[in-house]
Amino acid sequence: MTTPVIPDKAEILALVEMALVWDLKGSHLPSVEVALDMVEQFTVFGRAVADDLRTGCLSIPADSEAGIEISAQATLGEATRRLYLSPPRATQEVASHRAQNIARLVRRLLEATEAVRQELERAARQTPQHAITKGI
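Structure (tokenized):
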């Protein structure tokens, strides 16, 4: 089994923006192949971001703001459910809808990861730095 190549963040963000402007009730949807390719790219990227978010959540100090961790854990729960679904049946509407849903999830994962990163930085600034001294 080969490890999937994680797409570049800038490329993924551009694809996310593209997917989120599709009018799912309109006639200008991408082909099934394009939508399913985006689903695959979003899924691979989303799994990597979810792993980073999970690691960050484990590093949050116990006295940190609980709302950030609760929100991040909720996003991780959704990621666990959605990023491991099998590909949708190959219709234009269903494939495009899945791509949009995973694009929204990728955006939320990135936002949660950034919030956790900021919380970790804040906690690090507030933690007193004690010099370690050997028995004097």
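The radius of gyration is 19 Å. The chain has four helices and no strands.
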